[in-house]
Design goal:
The structure holds two protein chains of two kinds. By secondary structure, chain A is mostly helical. Chain A has helices spanning 14-40, 49-82, 89-99, 102-118, 136-144, 148-179, 183-211, 223-248, 258-289, 292-301, 306-325, 328-331, 334-356, 365-390, 403-407. Chain B is mainly alpha-helical. Chain B has helices spanning 7-12, 27-39, 56-60, 67-93, 109-132, 169-177, 198-223, 235-238, 270-274, 276-279, 293-302, 338-356, 365-373, 387-390, 394-403, 417-434, 443-458, and strands at 17-24, 45-48, 156-161, 183-188. In chain B, helix 4 (67-93) packs antiparallel against helix 5 (109-132). The chains are: A mainly alpha, B mainly alpha.
């Protein structure tokens, strides 16, 4: 293979690296201010229990929001090898860097574990003392499955699996940068199938543990798929944004073409549809069966100010991106696609808020403002982590045997 | 053949030309040639390849089709049709309560809407594709040249049509000739005779005539008469070696094919007709009653009540239906133990409490809801604690569950006889609980009950 290229064109821009500490500190400040807003605003007469509920829920929602991108990246990598995809080779390294951020993000989960062992039940009601259990159903669940210890063991298990899988794929990919050995692609192909099955289970269980158990009475077996669909959608939107930012900075110019944007746009569109399908499947079964122990989850979300917010989800997460991204011309137009991707990133945050925040309390301006600030802060921290992780790593797997296929790839004209 | 014909006649019959067809060995040659032709300004071009070739659309300069927009419109039409249809059908024209759901458009309408959107889109994209490609086309001049058959196998073809506005026979030939094709042929009109060969015409005629023969035979049979016996196609189906009810036989001395029951056996379904466990009454005692057995049984299945015609005033419960005079059994056929009692409570709570209430006062959720709607013609469910029900033998309560009464439907298909008897047992316990005195309470529990009673009397709030 002809390897005459300027190495500088596939490296992270120097200016980005310089900005990383600023972005990180800005993110931390925003996060702390945001959490502070959520904590302090509803305080009445020194009682901060409600504020603490807002704080913990906001933190969890924003954490899962950014963490889901890395899960999407891991799934994307597994999927590309499983299907022996060629088109994606030039954008694959970016996804690989994203999935390698799981160890960094695992640090952000530590506060939640600490909070559990500190004995707080503000976020996870099942962590209450046996005498203060909200009801017998939760008490029975908290007897074995939903305990702080077992929860931690499971969480550690999920992270271990994700980190091991991601690191192994990343290491082989980096080895291929040096050797160009085809064997390295074949072995990843072979292992992608079993790993993707474990991945499916791990994401489902993580969704049950982290998000669904904040409402320990309620259950929905499709919940893991729900989180997965939204994560994939957010991941593809993020990939579009990152690729465009890199190209605007003069990097990977000819390696990522309009065809790749078109395909990432199609995936975003597809997962907007898939999310809607899953979200509706969950709703219609619960609505039709009309069993109180299931319907109240929606009732909480359709009370007070949450009602317009929840109905807004249909427009924000489905109607607007669905109609907007449907057109091929939008997906092939840089500016238009960037707008769509940014909107989808917002929609995913909106969805995470919808999943978590109504459990904290009613929708009020200051806690939500703090939650939004925290979300932006979390994104900034995420960006700084990305820069840190991507430093010194080529942004394209230049010696992957499928790279020529990716570069000559073209969508058929419809 | 043509060698013998004079040269002049060949030129006269020169077939019509439709354009030039160039043949290539691989897709690279085809793509290069297609780009060249595109850049020369020709638009009426087409490529034929054995597999989809990436980039061929761009190389041929094909414009995006309008089909997606047609399909989009069809999708919205399907969406609108589905929503309008469901709104009209279930919201306006024929509002019908389904699982207590609201009328008109509900979340349950979305799957139908989705299906119809997809259906309209799919049909439109298929039919639209056919129409935009001007299909079906029964004959195409490109097939005249047998070389073209390899387009589905291993060769790549580029076609420039003569209908192109810049078409010039010589210059197109020159252009395509410069792209190193394997062969370059003019696409000519198919000059083979287009008339159908005589044997085919003959064969079709024969088939048509043969197809008329059965119809002729049937017509002949319908119109004519015959004294011949009926024709049996399946003889052993028409004459089976078996006997039907009421027929005679020579096998048995009494000449009857229907046989009396063998002693000590029970026929299928016989228990359900004879055993009090399944009936609630003892049919063997029926003859002792004045009325004829069959008449009473008929009455017991109908149980006409005043409520059925809906003419009660809503205040006054319907007059107690005249109890069928059947020999009800007085003792439970199941054991009155704790297991059966718990089982009966479970079943009562599941099936009965919705109307009759958990304590049997006829104040279940259905009743409360209907009462709050205050529609006037609601007949309250019967209380288990009125004298009429308390005085009923257990068999009669069992019969009510089995057959239903008034508005109450039969529960025979939902509850097995054992479950029904368990419910009867539980109802008896409920009735007893409302009419108990201190002697019914076990000795060791009497003192605690007395304490509770004093507490309630002195301080009603504390016990809540």
């Amino acid at each position: 293979m002809n390897l005459n290229y300027d190495k500088a064109t596939i490296e992270l821009p120097q200016s980005w690296r310089a900005k990383a500490p600023i972005i990180l500190s800005a993110g931390l400040i925003l996060l702390v201010v945001g959490l502070g807003c959520a904590f302090l605003s509803p305080a009445k007469g020194g009682d901060n229990s409600q504020g603490f509920r807002y704080l913990t829920h906001s933190y969890l929602a924003n954490f899962v929001y950014v963490f889901s991108f890395t899960l999407g990246a891991l799934f994307f990598i597994l999927m590309q090898f499983l299907t022996r995809a060629g088109w994606s080779t030039s954008i694959r390294r970016l996804a690989e860097i994203l999935m390698m951020m799981i160890p960094y993000l695992a640090i952000l989960f530590v506060p939640i574990i600490v909070m559990l062992f500190w004995g707080s039940s503000a976020l996870y009601e099942w962590n209450a003392k046996p005498s203060e259990m909200p009801n017998s159903v939760i008490a029975s669940k908290a007897a074995f499955f939903l305990t702080a210890k077992f929860f931690t063991i499971r969480t550690v298990a999920y992270f271990t699996f994700w980190i091991l899988a991601a690191s192994w794929f990343f290491r082989l990919s980096r080895q291929q940068d040096e050797s160009g050995d085809i064997e390295l692609s074949l072995i990843r192909q072979k292992w992608s199938a079993p790993l993707i099955m474990i991945f499916a289970l791990s994401v489902s269980f993580a969704a049950f543990d982290w998000l669904m158990s904040i409402d320990a009475d309620w259950y929905s077996t499709i919940f893991g798929v729900y989180l997965f669909s939204g994560s994939m959608m957010g991941f593809f939107a993020l990939m579009i944004i990152i690729s465009m930012l890199l190209q605007n900075a003069g990097k990977v110019q000819k390696l990522i073409t309009v065809e790749h944007y078109h395909d990432m746009g199609k995936f975003t569109f597809g997962f907007v549809m898939f999310w809607s399908y899953i979200a509706f499947s969950q709703l219609v079964l619960i609505w039709y069966a009309n069993i109180p122990e299931e319907t109240y989850w929606y009732k909480v979300r359709l009370e007070g100010n949450w009602a317009p917010f929840s109905y807004g989800l249909i427009a924000v997460h489905f109607i607007i991106p669905f109609l907007y991204l449907m057109s091929r011309h939008v997906r092939r137009n840089r500016t238009a696609l960037a707008v769509g991707a940014a909107w989808v990133l917002f929609a995913h945050w909106y969805d995470m808020t919808f999943l978590v925040m109504p459990n904290a309390g009613s929708l009020e301006f200051f806690p939500m403002f703090g939650h939004l600030l925290g979300g932006i802060g979390m994104l900034c921290i995420f960006a700084a982590m990305f820069i840190q992780r991507a430093s010194g790593v080529p942004l394209v797997a230049m010696r992957d045997p499928r790279l020529p296929e990716a570069l000559s790839y073209a969508n058929p004209i419809l | 053949m043509s060698e013998h014909k004079p040269r002049k006649s060949i030129e006269k019959k020169m077939p019509k030309a439709f354009g030039w067809m160039a043949e290539y060995q691989d897709e690279h040659g085809l793509l290069a040639a297609a780009r060249k032709v595109r850049d020369s300004g020709y638009t009426k071009t087409d490529a034929f390849t054995p597999f989809p070739v990436h980039g061929i659309d761009e190389a041929l300069g094909i414009k995006p089709t309008v089909l997606p927009f047609i399909v989009l419109c069809a999708g919205f039409t399907g969406l609108g049709t589905a929503l309008l249809m469901q709104w009209w059908m279930n919201g306006v024209d024929y509002p019908y309560i389904i699982s207590g759901k609201p009328f008109g458009i509900t979340p349950a309408s979305i799957p139908v809407t989705f299906e119809l959107t997809v259906l309209f889109s799919a049909f439109t994209s298929f039919l639209g594709m056919i129409a935009l490609n001007k299909l079906p086309k029964f004959s195409n001049p490109v097939f005249t040249n047998p070389r073209f058959d390899r387009a589905t196998n291993d060769r790549f073809f580029l076609y420039v049509e003569a209908t192109d506005k810049y078409y010039n026979r010589e210059s197109v030939k020159e252009l395509l000739g410069g792209t190193q094709p394997d062969s370059l042929d003019e696409v000519l009109e198919d000059t083979t005779p287009s008339a159908l060969p005589q044997p085919i015409i003959l064969g079709v005629l024969l088939i048509v005539v043969a197809g008329l023969i059965p119809a002729m035979i049937i017509l002949n049979m319908r119109a004519g008469f015959s004294t011949a016996p009926r024709f049996h196609l399946f003889f052993d189906m028409d004459f089976q070696p078996k006997k039907k009810a009421q027929q005679t036989t020579t096998i048995f001395a009494d000449g009857r094919i229907m046989r009396p029951q063998v002693k000590g056996t029970i026929a299928r379904g016989q228990l359900e007709e004879q055993d009090p466990f399944y009936l609630g009454y003892d049919p063997s005692k029926m003859t002792m009653l004045e009325e004829s057995a069959s008449g009473v049984m008929f009455v017991s299945t109908q149980t006409p009540t005043a409520s059925q015609d809906g003419k009660t005033d809503g205040q006054q419960p319907a007059a107690a239906p005249e109890a069928p005079k059947l020999p009800w059994i007085d003792t439970l056929p199941i054991e009155a133990n704790e297991d059966n009692m718990k089982f009966g409570k479970l079943k009562f709570d599941t099936y009965c409490s919705a109307c009759h209430g958990y304590a049997g006062f006829g104040d279940g959720l259905v009743h409360k809801r209907a009462d709050s709607l205050a529609q006037g013609y609601w007949l309250p469910p019967t209380s288990m604690h009125i004298d009429r029900v308390r005085n009923q033998p257990v068999g009669q309560i069992f019969n009510t569950i089995t057959k239903g009464q008034g508005k109450m439907a039969s529960y025979a298909s939902s509850l097995s006889p054992k479950e029904r008897w368990s419910i009867v047992l539980y109802i008896r316990a409920l009735q007893r609980s409302r009419n108990a005195n201190m002697d019914d309470v076990p000795v060791e529990m009497r003192s605690s009950l007395n304490d509770l009673a004093t507490q309630v009397k002195t301080n009603p709030e504390a016990t809540k």
